[in-house]
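Hi F.,

I've been meaning to write this up properly since the lab meeting, where we talked about keeping a consistent format for the predictions we share between groups. The idea is simple: the sequence comes first, exactly as it goes in, then the structure tokens exactly as they come out, then a line or two of notes. No screenshots and no reformatting. I'm using this chain as the first example so we have something concrete to point to.
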Amino acid sequence: MSNAVIMRNVVKSFGELIAVNEVSFEVREGEIFGILGPNGAGKTTAIKVLMGLLDPDSGSAEVFGISSSEDPIGVKRIVGYVPEEQQLYESLTPREIFEFIASVRELPEEKASKRVEEFVRALDFEKYYDSMVVTLSQGNKQKALLIAALIHKPKLLILDEPFSGLDVRTASIMKDVIKIHAENGGSVLLSTHIMEVAEAMCDRVGILDEGKLVAVGTLEELRDVSQREGATLEKVFLALTEQEDEVREGIDQLREALA
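Output, unedited:
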């Protein structure tokens, strides 16, 4: 099986802070790959290097053989990206944003319009289609970002914390989109700190902690590495990031405080 993403020995620092430290991993074609880690672990920085939004200090990243640093526009042509920050032009409507994106991507107007309308109906977004973005809820802004990422039929979806702040219905739709994209042969790189989502959806995961990739593999492989047979991904994650003692101490302190 060929790779959709290859990241090799990537280092990215900001002053004295090393946000990503010698990180290497692959995402296979047709795979849902999860990047897990606590806040500040380097997940978003790694994704921005992959998208060509940040240049690495050293190492390399590529998407379907296209170098992220040498040809960032080429990468963006084949990737659908939903960033953690909901960056939308708030004075525009979703319709105007989608038309602008289709124009920039030089998509045939009729085909792009039909595709957008299908997503709008499927995501129950019709009544917000012509509302200014500033009036939309967080969940509806996330729907708009998702449609924008899918307009051009990307080979790879990159989703950075896509479930943050979503209601149950919108989160369920987001999960379905990810599954269907992979079933149709697309690849997905999913960054999340929600262990239950990663365990249920991801074929493999990479665990980042303090900028370093501490483990990569299927859940079963990570159980073997952590020596936690039959454990949930959450338990495995805590073991591999050496947070088990901290969690136990925190629980003990809470028991005393609440007694």
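Notes:
The domain at 3-217 is CATH 3.40.50.300 (Rossmann fold).
The radius of gyration is 19 Å.

If this format works for you, I'll send the rest the same way.

G.
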